[in-house]
Amino acid sequence: MSDVPAPIGPSSRNESEATRALIFDSYYDDYRGVILYVRVFDGSIQKSSQIKMLATSAQGIALEVGALKPDMTPGQELKTGEIGYIVTNLKSTREARVGDTITLQAKPATEPLPGYRNVQPFVYAGFFPESNEFYQELKDAIEKLSLSDSALQFAPENSPVLGFGVRIGFLGLLHMDIVRERLEREYDLELVVTNPSTDYQVSLINGEELDIKSAADLPEPTKIAEIREPWIKGEIVVPKDYVGPVIQLISGKRGIQTNLSYVDERALVSFEAPLANLLTDFYDQLKSITSGYGSFNYELDDYRAEDLVKVDFYVAGEMVSALSVMVHRSEAQKLGRDTVAKLKEVIPRQNFQVALQAGIHGRFIAREDISAYRKDVTTGLYGGDVSRKKKVLAKQAKGKKRMKRFGKVDIPSEAFTEMLKRD
What we know:
Blueprint: E1 20-29, E2 33-42, E3 45-46, E4 50-53, E5 59-68, E6 72-75, E7 77-78, E8 83-88, E9 101-104, E10 123-129, H1 135-148, E11 153-159, E12 163-170, H2 173-186, E13 191-193, E14 197-198, E15 200-204, E16 209-212, E17 224-239, H3 243-252, E18 256-263, E19 266-274, H4 282-289, E20 295-305, E21 308-315, E22 318-319, E23 325-328, H5 329-346, E24 354-360, E25 363-370, H6 386-406, H7 414-419
Antiparallel strand pairs: 1-2, 1-9, 2-8, 3-7, 4-5, 4-9, 5-6, 5-8, 10-12, 10-13, 10-14, 11-12, 15-16, 15-17, 17-19, 17-20, 18-19, 21-22, 21-23, 21-24, 24-25
C-alpha cells in the first residue's frame, strides 16, 4: 500500500480569476429545464449565480449546483478543478452547447476555453406526414426533440406533391436514422422521408457564392461557374476475406482508396469519397457484402469541384421537385433509368397513359410509360357496319387523350421510399 501514490489534487489555478467552466454534456429535463454537466477550470460557480455562455451569449441562473456521486448531490458551490452539474432556467440546449464556456455575468471571462467548435449539419432530408392533417403533430414533435438535441436544425417546407413538412439538417446518417426512429416510435408518426442530400457550394458567374441544401434550389445552369460537393475521409474495418468486395464497393461510389493495412485477421481500408454517394444505401450494402462484420466511420474532409448535374423527374409532364437529385454527370443516365423504372412499379395505373421521365436541364435522358386501363367499349356491338366500332373506339381514344391532358396523378409515399434504394 505504501507504493500507492497520493491522490492528485485539483487544478492549482487561482480561484480569484474570472470563472470559466467547460460544458461536456447537457440535456433538457421537462420539469427542471436545461441541466449542464461541467468542469470548472477557473474561479467558482455558486448556487443562484448569474451565469453566461460565451459562445451563444445566453444568460441564466444557476438554480442548483452539485456533484455527481454518481447521483446528483446538491451543494452550494463548484470550485476550480471540480466536476459537477448545474441546473439552469434555460429553455433549450441550443443556448448551452457542448464545448461552450460558462462564466459569471458579474465578472465575465474574456477568453473562452479552447476547443469549442459550432457544429453544422451537412445531411438534409424532408420529413412529411403521410396525411397533411398530422403536420402540426410532426412540427410539435420535432420542436420537443430539439430541446434535447442542440444539433438539430429545421425549417418548414412545402411540397406540391407531399404537402406541408419540415426540412431537417443532421450531423450525419446515424443522426438522421436516430431522429426518424424517435419520431416514429415515441410520437407514433407515419412519415415520408425524401431522398437525403448534402449541401453544395455553388459559385456563380457574377462572383456570388451560394450554399445549396436542396437540388430544387439550384440556379439556372447558365448562371453557374462551379459546383463543389463535400468529400469525406472514411475507414472500414472488415475481416481480411472481404477486402476485395469492399474495395469494389468504394470504387463504385466514386471513392478513392488511400491506404490498406492488416491487423491479425482484420483489415483497415482507408478511403476518400463524395458524401452524396454514401447517403442512401452504402451502409446496407457494406453489411450485406461483409455478412454484417464490416464497421464504417467517417469525417468531413473538404469541398471539391466536380461535374455535377441536377436530374429532374416528371410524372405526366409535371416536374416533381421532391424527387430531384444532384449527381455526377457520369452517373446521371443510369440513375434516371433506374428511378423511372422503380416509379413505374410503385405508381398505380390510371385511366390514361402516364409518362415517367428523367431529364437534365430540360433534356430527357430516360422514359417509362404506365399503360392505361382500357375498357372494352365494343362489348355491346354485335354485327352491323364495322364503322360503328371504329367510331366508338375513336370516341374512347379522344376521351383518354383529354384525361391525359387534364388528369392528375397521385404519387404514393412508396415512391419516395424506393428512391432511397439505389442498386
